[in-house]
Amino acid sequence: MEKQQQKNPPTGGNNKFPLGGPDRRWLYILLPFLLFLPFLTTMFTGGQQRASEISYTRFLNEVERGNVREVTISGFRVDATLDQPITNGPTIGDGRTVFTHVPSFGDTEIMETLRRRNVTVFTRPPQERVSFMALLMNLLPLFILVWIGFALFRNMRNQGKSIFSVGQNKAKLYEKTEKERTTFADVAGLHGAKEEIMEVVDFLKNPTRYQKIGAKTPKGVLLVGPPGTGKTLIARAIAGEADAPFYSMSGSDFMEMFVGVGASRVRSLFQDAKKRAPSIIFIDELDSVGRHRGAGLGGGHDEREQTLNQLLSELDGFEANETTIVVAATNRPDILDPALLRPGRFDRRITIDLPTVKDRVEILEVHGRNKPLAKDVDLEQIAKGTPGFSGADLQNLLNEAALLAARDNRETILARDVDEARDKVLLGLERKNLTMSTHERKIVAYHEAGHALTAAILPNTDPLLKVTIIPRENSLGVTQQVSAEEKYLYSREYLLDRIVMMLGGRAAEDLVFQSVTNGAESDFREATRLARKMVCDWGMSDRLGTFSSGGQRKNVFLGEEMSHAREYSEGTAHEIDGEIKALLAASYQRAKELLTKYRDKLEALTEALLEKEQLDAHEIGVILNGAGSDRTKRSDKSDSGSNGSDKPKTRKTTRSRNMPKEEE
Question: 438-552+567-655, which class in CATH?
Answer without folding.
Answer: mainly alpha
